[in-house]
Design brief:
By secondary structure, this protein is α+β, with helices and mostly antiparallel strands. It contains 17 helices and ten strands. The strands form three sheets. It has a five-stranded mixed beta sheet. It has a three-stranded antiparallel beta sheet with strand order 6-7-8. The chain has a two-stranded antiparallel sheet with strand order 9-10.
């Protein structure tokens, strides 16, 4: 048994033992402290001791391998601490064993946590819910659910694991959505309830006792029947306020007024859907809420908006820039624009400013100006306004339904697809008449013809 002063030089000078053997160098000053060398050249600092006298078994604790952070001096200091524990009858071996077990348990928990964080991250799992469940069982409404998830839920919860979301987090989100309106809060509530129910069913082991943060939360106030339509005066304000939004949201809002299609359908328009020569837009069934295609004749004002749009180029991975023929309204060339809640707030503010400015010009007093407000409305109300307006203009309900792609008992199944083209002439007449009505409401003058010249984009 070699004994000497344990130093950097002496440790590195210990010869390699034969295969399967160990070589030791014990410190001449600190009894029990030494270095062990394996046949593979691994040099480790150790402490050897007995607790309970000569009859007790010898135990060893490995301090660490030679090299940073363990040098002869740092290992000697640690050995001194361990031998002091021995003197106090506190076995370092048991402590080291417990530490190894604790480290192993911590690593296992960390691994499990990483799996949960990746598999149950809200954004990831919500996407899986849409693909695996909503698209299969909610053929008519999954797109709306996906929109609620992407617009309202993912920005709030991000990659937070579902298991880490508490009921207080849900309440806070619903309160925020409620400020935008009861409809937004109720839709958010329903989507969250469905996601958690699906998660607990599929990932039960991660939800002890079926823990569900939605369990004790009551649904927000239910939506009443939605029948809001805008007056001509309100429609005029929306049109003028949209002009102040600029591109791309200004043209989107004006097309919503003129076509009566849904917000996301207009925002997601692609150039391949638009036939400029035929002056029409064919909305494919894959993008419509009800899964049916819709041929939308474009009135002169609508065509003026479309032809004045810029073509956004997409930057591809190769760095090559080419016109992207897909999207009319995009800032990236790859995805449609979003952020309509902020756009709606800007519209309301601009509408109120216009009301106050015009009222002031008409001689209204301060109290009258202070009492002015914008009656609550939604972008979807523009669709209902067009439908009601076309009926007031004398067009039958089946034509109005064909214009807005609404499915009633007479437009279900193959009949709905057939009527996409069957009412082409009637729909064009209705949308042209509606465009004239809108222009008259804006200008206060009767349209002399179907042609209306709109302001050009700067």
């Amino acid at each position: 048994m070699a004994v000497g002063k344990v130093t950097k030089l002496s440790v590195e000078a210990v010869p390699l033992p034969a295969a399967g053997k160990r070589e030791h160098l014990w410190d001449e000053r600190l009894k029990g402290f030494g270095v062990m060398v394996t046949d593979r050249g691994v040099r480790s600092y150790i402490v050897q001791y007995r607790i309970g006298g000569r009859g007790s078994p010898t135990r060893r604790v490995t301090i660490g391998k030679h090299g940073s952070p363990w040098t002869a001096e740092t290992a000697r200091k640690r050995a001194t601490e361990l031998l002091e524990q021995v003197r106090r009858q506190d076995d370092p071996f048991d402590a080291a064993k417990a530490k190894v077990a604790a480290d192993r348990e911590a690593r296992a928990k960390a691994t499990a946590s990483a799996v949960i964080s990746e598999r149950l991250a809200f954004s990831t799992f919500a996407g899986r819910y849409v693909d695996k469940y909503a698209k299969v069982h909610q053929a008519k409404s999954w797109r709306e659910t996906e929109g609620v998830i992407n617009r309202d839920l993912v920005p709030r919860f991000g990659t937070t694991p579902l298991t880490a979301i508490e009921d207080a987090d849900v309440v806070e989100l619903l309160e925020a959505l409620g400020e935008r309106g009861p409809s937004a809060a109720l839709k958010g509530y329903k989507a969250l309830r469905q996601i958690f129910a699906y998660a607990i069913d599929k990932e039960r082991r991660h939800f002890p006792a079926g823990k569900n943060p939605m369990a004790g939360i009551k649904p927000p106030a239910k939506m009443g029947k939605r029948d809001r339509t805008l007056t001509d005066a309100e429609l005029r304000l929306v049109w003028l306020a949209a002009g102040g939004l600029g591109w791309p949201f200004g043209p989107i809002v004006r097309l919503l007024i003129l076509t009566g299609q849904r917000r996301d359908e207009v925002a997601g328009m692609s150039w391949v859907e638009v036939d400029k020569e035929a002056r029409q837009w064919l909305l494919p069934g894959a993008r419509s809420k009800n899964g049916l295609p819709n041929l939308v004749p474009l009135s002169d004002p609508a065509m003026s908006i479309v032809t004045d749009l810029p073509v956004i180029r997409a930057v591809r991975e190769t760095g090559d820039k080419r016109p992207d023929p897909r999207l009319l309204f995009t800032t990236t060339g790859e995805t449609p624009v979003s952020g309509f809640s902020k756009v709606k707030a800007r519209l309301d503010a601009s509408m109120l400013d216009l009301m106050k400015h015009e009222a002031a010009d008409a001689g209204a007093g301060e109290d009258e100006l202070a009492a002015l407000s914008v009656k609550p409305w939604t972008l979807h109300d523009l669709r209902r306004t067009l439908a009601a307006g076309c009926q007031r203009l004398g067009f039958p309900v089946e034509v109005t339904e064909a214009v807005i792609n609404h499915v009633s008992g007479t437009r279900a199944g193959i009949v709905g697809v057939y009527q996409t083209y069957r009412y082409e002439t009637e729909k064009r007449s209705a949308l042209d008449a509606w465009a004239r009505h809108v222009m008259e409401a804006i200008t206060g003058k009767s349209a002399a013809s179907n042609v209306v010249v709109l302001e050009r984009r700067a």
